[in-house]
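Lab notebook, bench 4. Still working through the backlog of constructs that have no structural model yet. Next entry is a single chain of 225 residues. Request: give me the structure tokens for it.
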Amino acid sequence: MSPPPAARTTNDTARWLAAALMDIGALVLRPDEPFTWASGRRAPIYCDNRLTLGYPDLRGAICRAFAGCIASEKWEVDAIVGTATAGIPHAAWLAGRLNLPMAYVRSSAKGHGRENRVEGRLPSRARVVVVEDLVSTGMSSTAVLPPLEALGCDVLGVMAIFTYALPEAATAFSDAGVPIVTLSSFPVLITVAREKELLGEEECSSLEAWYRDPSAWSVAHGGSN
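Model written out:
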């Protein structure tokens, strides 16, 4: 893995990160042996950004990039919020870097005690940024917004390490009225895979076909729509 970016453009960071995630096996491309997602859809890509936890230089670069996004967006942030579970460590590192309070949102309320969805203590009417590891359809990412808003938080935006950049996600965030900022994306990944000759042209074409119509691609490869 090459050294992490220090002061790079957004495009440089996106390309470097896509390559780094492939290097550690966090991003795996298998157009000829598709993965089956929890939804039943079949896809040529699988992303497990939890693997970044084992690479200090990489997770440090991600933290710096997130901090850079907040500065670029000119968000005046009172607290950082992670999504359970993969967003929690990255939110904690970012909150530490910015010396801000940190909380996280459970996927569902606890079945005992206070039955919290949001864990941690946030300032009153806090302006928060949510940290996510991966955005696919955007449904799980936007699901954390209502419990935060119920506490009186102003969610300035959601930041993620990687996005498949699917139309469903754009619609989900547009409907929620919250911006999404990501460090790298599937289109960037295809470009990097081509440049590094990690896949043949036929395989890259298959990836592009999935990106254009994930549902049809899934059905054509034996998955659900």
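Notes after review: The domain at 10-220 is CATH 3.40.50.2020 (Rossmann fold). The radius of gyration is 18 Å. Flag for follow-up if needed.
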